[in-house]
Structure prediction request, 710 residues.
Amino acid sequence: MNLPSILGNPIEYLKGVGPVRAELLQKELGIFTFRDLLEHFPYRHVDKTRVNLIREIRPDVEFIQVAGRVTSVNLVGQQRSRRLVAEIRDASGTLELVWFQGIHGVQKLVQVGGDYLVFGRVSFFQGSAQLTHPEIEAYAGPAAERPEHLEPVYPTTEKLKVRGLGGRQLGKLTQTLLGLLKEKDLPENLPESVMTYSDPVSGDPARWISRYEAYRQVHFPVNPGGYQAAVVRLKFEELFLAQVRLGLIKSKRHRSSQGVVFSQVGELFNQFYSRHLPFELTGAQKRVLREIRKDTGTGRQMNRLLQGDVGSGKTIVALLTMLLAVDNGYQACLMAPTEILARQHFEGISALLKDLPLEVRLLTGSSKSKARKEVLEMAREGGLHILIGTHAVLEETVQFRQLGLAIVDEQHRFGVAQRARLWQKAAVPPHVLVMTATPIPRTLAMTAYGDLDYSVMDELPPGRQPISTVHRFEDRRSQVMDFLKHEIGKGRQVYVIFPLIEESEKMDYENLERGYENIKAWFPEPKYWISRVDGRQKAEIRDTNMARFLGGDTQIMVATTVIEVGVNVPNATVMVIESAEKFGLSQLHQLRGRVGRGAEKSFCILLTSPRLGKEARERMNILTETNNGFKIAEKDLELRGPGDIEGTRQSGLLNFKIANIVQDREWLELARERAMELLEKDPELIMEENRELKVFLQTQQGRTAWSKIS
Ligand code: ADP
Ligand code: MG
Prediction:
């Protein structure tokens, strides 16, 4: 029996904390317990014996540590520009230190004539170097420090700094805590079989340092090598545990989940396939259908994620899967994230199925009550075969007689909780197929969706011409407009998209308004007709405008990103994206995917301000270079980090404390490999050698969101 560890103690009871600081630590850093403090890792270490000379400061050094005497401290400026400016002098020169916040606290700490050690990021103001909000502490000279003593520096906040809990001062608390911890408080949780590994870079055999040692050295390393060993050990551990958890969830689902059986490919499927399918399926579409058939024939519930780049033809896969369900006596539903998209699916699918004896209906938030009543009744009584809709389908009033399949299109707009509501619509949970057009890099998918079965459609239907993408500065707008005229002259349609970002909504609407007027001036009626679509319009107006563009009555659509997902107008050949620098890579790729859907050559024009940051420029370059959604997703992940990838944030799955799935890709691969090996041998962790691991996972329950995803 494991005794409760002191790691669970409230942080208040650590020597040097007390109630006031405890409250601050909770509020500012989310540190509630001893364990939280232990897992608040330093972001760097300083070697206090190594001090730079002020003269050595150059624009290309980022951080600097200097020691010297403070010669002046002055409060300057008024109100918002009020700041505290101190000057520090060493043997080689002087340097300015500036604080805008926490002035009061600094004034108390820093005295003219005192000696201080200062560390911070160098910036240049009017040609001279300064440190803004540096860390500062009294300094007794190098002799007072232990040689090669690496002192941890922790993430902190201005509020904490003022209360004496700056980036370095937090280390005093960590030191106190480590003094209390015994080996038994941090027992090894990796099974012996996982303790050894071969280094992914050198291939040499290696062994992790113990967990206890790792926690000590990550805070107070004996040398830089010790720190490295500690960090990789903890990263691996975190990733490995995550993979084991996911693996357990998945294998448990596979073992215990009961699913309806689609035993046969029947009449409807075959008839549609041989007589109504308008094209030959791509190899990828066929493969995915085989995977789905296999899953749905086994008697366990399918829970499959289908990733396919924009335009790869997911809809037809969805349709064929729904026919499979109906052939086996079950109902199917397809959910889309927006009304427009749901309607488009409904119309497209109804048209394809018009010669088959099937009842297909649409249900959205704006369905009239009479029609809604009828649909609900048909669903309940079983006369309805296929229901297409928005999340209105999830409402409790929607009951099926025998739902066998639920398909979610563009799943990023649906949260995990919403997905789970589908499960409850039938006694035996329906098979679930989740389709996404925002490819997720492999590493991310392995973590965020590791419990799902997973298919990729990495092939576009034949005959597609790649979309030519160019980047133009706004001052070339008139050439761009001429180009649009030329395309419209050939009978094509064009999109002009404006960004709409929530925080600056008002300004963006003004931009949209101005942009719309501008386009109207370039393209006057009655020669040209424009559809305007944005999220503020009434649904009917938006739908009418959309329908006019779909039907070819208008040649130009001016819109915000409401059209981002799914809309299919094969005659549209140009996508102009205004202020493209304001969009993320994946979103730009999604928008671009609205063109290139027909046989004609298509174009995407990224308009930006000529003053572009480095990262924005890189985004534009990536888009002009590749049409491959998977490559773009990888780049997006690299540039933005996992926290921002749409749809994964709310899942809480990527909140690693120390690992980073972008930078630590090789450790993630290794962790996954080792976790799978282990679970293959011992799927329920009953072997003696995996006991500690099992106990550890059990005691960790509730500390993460893992268990929520199935
Ligand atoms: P997405 O995967 O983005 O949802 P869609 O299902 O909307 O893509 O398909 C995009 C277009 O490609 C549609 O016009 C569809 O009819 C067409 N399409 C799908 N599969 C094929 C195929 N195998 N051959 C030719 N065209 C196809
Ligand atoms: Mg689609």
